[in-house]
Amino acid sequence: MSEDVFDVLQKRGLIAHVSDEAAVRSMLSGGCVTFYVGFDGTATSLHAGSLVPIMAMKHLQRAGHRPIAIIGGGTTMVGDPSGKTDMRKMLIEEDIRANGLLIQAQLDKYLHFDGKNSLAVNNADWLLKLNYITFLREIGRHFSVNRMLASEAYKQRMEKGLTFLEFNYQLLQAYDYLHLYREYGCTLQMGGDDQWGNILAGVDLIRREEGAKVEAMTFPLLTASSGAKMGKTAKGAIWLDGDKLSPYDFYQYWVNCDDSDAGKFLRIFTFLPLDEISDLENLLGSDIRRAKQRLAYEATAITHGKAAADEARTSAEAAFGEGAGDLEAIPSTDVAGARLQQGLSPLDLFVEVGLVSSRGEAKRLQKQGGMYVNDRRIDSLDVLLTKADVTPGGILLRAGKKKYHRVQIRN
After folding, report:
1. Phi, psi angle pair for 133, to nearest 5°
2. Under CATH, which architecture does the 246-319 domain have?
3. What share of the chain is helix, strand, coil (3-state, %, to 5)?
């Protein structure tokens, strides 16, 4: 049992708020602590922002503590208002259940649920069975409306109108903590910093109902230096599901992060020793790319496995001329060879494979000098691609400096 896991989390930038630092330090340096984090089933996959709680859970698990992941089949029925200016889209129960199964399978790859030392539970199992009047009498009586409205989870939503449905979310999250305390001896809840009020509500509910002292800890809400929310890009979410986002594109997300984010991301999203991370983030000039390549490799290996990380790195080296490598992991699209007989416009092809969203965007890319085919810049809108442009690896398209796509020609 590690006595320094709280310090590890703190040094890696994984702690925002703690209910009682001395108490949490003491419990984590003692025996096995059962802790939990909730994941609502709002999509078929988690995204890179979800790696913040996952990595924190992994650090605690490696230190000998017991993680519980709540799959929010019940709470997703209500919708978490935290951090939202508008009400979340309501999903039907079947979709929530299906999403929950996919998310549980995804989390299992990181936390390896065995039903004893690491657990996944679905709060639909207890929340959907609640008698509403009984719940209000036994649980609702402990909640102050004034205190709830002062919570950050509700403040932003109050500006556009908070529904009564969403208003119940804090009660349900607090009840989750009470249920896990009673069933599994869970004494630590963790979550994003926008969950702080909801988590403290659970701490208070357990104190009132059970006369017990439990603790809370939140992670910082990360943004990149660009201001973009963690796990989001202009093209959409950085999914953890390899079928929704290829391991190569996942690798590219990390290797293309801002230089100033390299050290922070290495501390949070890898298990590399802190002294090694310090050496990497102190690299100067173009050498900082080595730090980002290491970040990309480690993060990809954690999520997709070492083989996928090796393949993504090799393909990136081939695409960027940094090594012998091959192009197999670069996202690709099959195109019929017959289409090249009359010539194929690069503008149409860039739109077709998704490197740009429209012909207008393709024209702007070309005008700005950012459209490349087989590392040859396209300087004219009149250029047409023919069979002469097909290499043994197909046709390699590049948008700007960093976005690649491979066109494979089929007969």
Report:
1. -65, -45
2. Orthogonal Bundle (1.10)
3. 50, 15, 35
User: Residue 275 to residues 3, 12, 244: CA-CA distances in angstroms?
Assistant: 19, 11, 35
pLDDT digits (tens, 9 = 90+) for 50-60: 999 999 999 99
Is the distance from CB of 152 to CB of 194 less than 8 angstroms?
A: yes
Please answer whether residues 53 and 37 qualify as being in contact, where contact means their C-beta atoms are separated by less than 8 angstroms. yes
Query: 332-410 has which fold?
Result: 3.10.290
What CATH architecture does domain 5-219 belong to?
Answer: 3-Layer(aba) Sandwich (3.40)
pLDDT digits (tens, 9 = 90+) for 324-371: 345 666 788 888 888 888 888 988 899 988 888 888 888 998 888 888
Where in the sequence of the chain do the CATH 3.10.290.10 domains occur?
332-410
Q: Please report, as a single letter, which amino acid is at residue 105.
A: A
Strand positions, DSSP E, 283-343? 332-336
Please state, in angstroms and rounded to a whole number, the distance separating the CA atoms of residues 277 and 262. 9
305: pLDDT confidence band, cut at 50, 70 and 90?
A: very high
Phi-psi region of 211 (alpha: psi -120 to 50; beta: other; left: phi over 0): left
What's the whole-model pTM score? 0.78
- Residue in the block written with tokens 């050290």: 263
Domain with CATH 3.40.50.620 in the chain: 5-219
Residues 6+ apart with CB under 8 A from 150: 197
> Which tens digits make up the pLDDT trace of 263-277?
999 999 999 999 999
